[in-house]
Amino acid sequence: MKKRFGAILGILMIAVILAACSGSGGDSANAGSEGEPTELLMWNLFAAGDAKFMQNIVDEFNESQDEYVVENVTQENSEYYTKLITSIGAGKGPDIAISHTNVLPELVSQGLVTELNSLAEEVGVEWNEYNENILDATIYNDLHYAVPMDTHPQIMYINNDIVEEVGLLNEDGTIQMEQSPEGFIDFFQTIKEEHPNEVLPLASSSSGTNPYWLWWGFYNQLGGEKLLSDNLENPTYEIDYEKAVKAANFVKGLYHENEIIRLNVSDYYPDFQSGNAAAIIAGVWATGTWESTEGLNFTPMPIPNIFGEKGAWANSHTFVLPYSENADQHTQEGALKFMDFAADKGAMWAQAGHIPAKTTVIESEGFKEIPYRSQYAEVAEYADFVDRNVHARGVESIVIRHLDTVWSGDTSAEDAFDKIEAEVKKLIGE
């Protein structure tokens, strides 16, 4: 482990955070007076539907008991992690915080979050109720550092009317696509031939995270798995070059050789929402947008497994217990009780499109009654999270930047990964 606060705490940042933040840091200062509930301050980074559903869960927890009361505070998304890291380091962090799985390694390495093993035993958290694949992404050195709330993978949505019109929709709602690279291309080429001008075969952006996520899923389907070795602080570069290039060339072909996805598109949701695209690749959080769109007849499904192994990019929202030097046992127990309670309310959270982290929720009637979600819940079993090390976000930024030049046609996949290797090795000090 690195020293607990390291270089993240410049003098100026400390001054700013001490003046601006009012976190409790999990100490006894927020314990209620006799007969009063203990206040638990939670920070989140949610917006729109996510924010509403989380507040509903908080309200239900507060109403379910009188020992604790959670104050749910939404922070600006773009500044969230900078503020969270700085606040915890200054001893002004919240009692509960949200962390994406790909950021968790940084928090663990810097000692900014508390391991939950012993506390979970006291509270009675049953880890076997959680999906093993999702839960594994929160464990370091056999210690639990987060309570996962969900996973939110990239999936595919189809416009049922368009796909049925070209004869590619089965009676059970599945699509007629051979599970191979050729079958994937043939499916969309058929749509393109039947609707040469008025309908887009497949909607996606041509730069940024969405095509990178698609590449990551195909890379994992090919058996690529990781970019770096499984070491929290000192990973080595271990990309499978041939598989990385093969996946990149396949995605590139969707833009160029096969012309299935349009180039120079950033805002691609309107194409599908307006009924002008036969399919779209997007995160599960888009489900709520489509189901609230009048007249849009759609079906969500996992991205087809065309390279032999199941695989799809995914991330997760998790709850973490920020480190506090003067931690109060009662406060921390309450924080963990809320986290487990919230995970139990996964069916409420699934209304935002996410897949609940608890298998007990997935198997519940309440979840099964929610339209669409069960049609892609299986992805949680094999969702592919990014590498679990402190460089994850930096590596992702490098890979996206270079892959963008592949999608645009300015660089070959081989040249891009040669440059990626050089930059990543420099980043990790190899």
From TrEMBL:
InterPro entries (alphabetical): Bact_solute-bd_prot1, SBP
Keywords for this protein: Signal
ATP-binding found in the keyword field: no
Tagged with keyword Protein transport: no
SUPFAM superfamilies per the UniProt record, alphabetical: Periplasmic binding protein-like II
Signal sequence extent: 1-19
Stated name of the protein: Extracellular solute-binding protein
